[in-house]
Amino acid sequence: MKTPPFVGWRRSSTPATPQNLSHSTSSSTYSSSTSTSSRRSAARSVADALVACFAPPEPEKSSSYVSNDYSNASSSSSQKRRSTNRSIYGSSNTSTGTRESGNVKFSMAEILKATRNFSPSLKVGQGGFGTVYKAVLEDGTIVAVKRAKKIMYDNHLGVEFQSEVQTLERIEHLNLVKFYGYLEHEDERILVVEYVPNGTLREHLDCKNGNILDFASRLDVAIDVAHAVTYLHMYTDHPIIHRDIKSSNILLTENLRAKVADFGFARLAADTESGATHVSTQVKGTAGYLDPEYLQTYQLTDKSDVYSFGVLLVELVTGRRPIEPKRELKERLTARWAMKKFSNGEAILALDPRIVRCPANNFAMEKIFELSLQCLAPHRKSRPPMRQCAEILWSIRKDYKELLTSNI
Ligand SMILES: Nc1ncnc2c1ncn2[C@@H]1O[C@H](COP(=O)(O)OP(=O)(O)OP(=O)(O)O)[C@@H](O)[C@H]1O
């Protein structure tokens, strides 16, 4: 197998060897033309055995007041910043977000200045973790400030926050949201990360900005996400399981390239060599994306992310959410419905109606569904590793582009 070139970046201090995979179309050993029919029939034979994924309800999103009294907010906390070989404001390459990521503690004063005292006008989102603000640091870097809800901290965020920080500070990849720093001060838990300006993948699939995400862009997004998750899974010392791959955690750049966000649930994978896996005390993740085997065994492996990625692929092709409660019963679980269509040779009926029907789109749709089916295998052993998903997607994109040009 040809090793793809590295175009992403990673911290030189971290001895990672994951494949920071290229955005460019790369060749791979996957042969879509020769093995298609056998793969498809094998894939279809397990289609009916697809186990639907049921998950516990999402945690309640309660809003909670977090004290705004920062009279003691330490400017001294900036002195507590861990010493790095660069200054917090000295490492910026430009004033608009190419600043290096790293392990940096922020002071409350800096956060308040950057967010103009958490001005509601700068609020860009609200999630299970808390509120997200668009903010500008003193050096001009535009960042997203994620302010945790107090209730999260009271319950379990102490662990979650540390988990997120420890994970974020160790990873760096073109398709992962960059980590700039954090603040822990009294009741406040704040993360400062790269601001990604173009909304979430879910918003694009919902056409919130009025534009339909075309098929080529959806394929690129799938590849970007596959690269990011491959990087996490292949992280040398401690492979990382994301645990919450979903369309609302995929942020898009102005060029519609994807960045995977939200490592709040991330866990370092256990010793994969020995086959040991992380045993959770609590199921985490999002309804509709959860690996059925994880739900049954509480054993978390990298293949749980592969399952969620399979759900995401179906979402990209159909445009539908993983769970569509308002639809008739047989269409409510999108993955099951779409895989059934695929196995019956009617995949085209599951293609997002807003996507143009043409030979290239129809071909790529079939191939992506075929991959989804493998990712959604009820047993994790039958699912491909994430790196293989990326390779298959490159191959699909290569053939897709050839078909597009040959049909002009
Ligand atoms: N880095 C970022 N750049 C730009 N916008 C962001 C960024 N991170 C989050 N947002 C916006 O804030 C919203 C909430 O993000 P957040 O990560 O808090 O959600 P969440 O906690 O992952 O939600 P959930 O609990 O459903 O997973 C996102 O949907 C997005 O619109």
From TrEMBL:
Gene Ontology molecular-function annotations: ATP binding; protein serine/threonine kinase activity
Reaction(s) catalysed by this chain's protein: L-seryl-[protein] + ATP = O-phospho-L-seryl-[protein] + ADP + H(+); L-threonyl-[protein] + ATP = O-phospho-L-threonyl-[protein] + ADP + H(+)
EC number: 2.7.11.1
Biased composition (Polar residues): 11-21, 88-101
Keyword terms of this UniProt record: ATP-binding, Kinase, Nucleotide-binding, Serine/threonine-protein kinase, Transferase
SMART domains in the record: S_TKc
Residues engaged in binding ATP: 150
Record domain Protein kinase: where: 118-404
UniProt-annotated stretches for the region Disordered: 1-41, 58-101
Bias kind Low complexity: ranges: 22-41, 62-78
Superkingdom in the source lineage: Eukaryota
Alphabetical list of PROSITE patterns matching this protein: PROTEIN_KINASE_ATP, PROTEIN_KINASE_DOM, PROTEIN_KINASE_ST
Family: Belongs to the protein kinase superfamily.
PANTHER family in alphabetical order: OS01G0750732 PROTEIN, PROTEIN KINASE DOMAIN-CONTAINING PROTEIN
Name this polypeptide is given: non-specific serine/threonine protein kinase
Protein's organism: Penstemon smallii
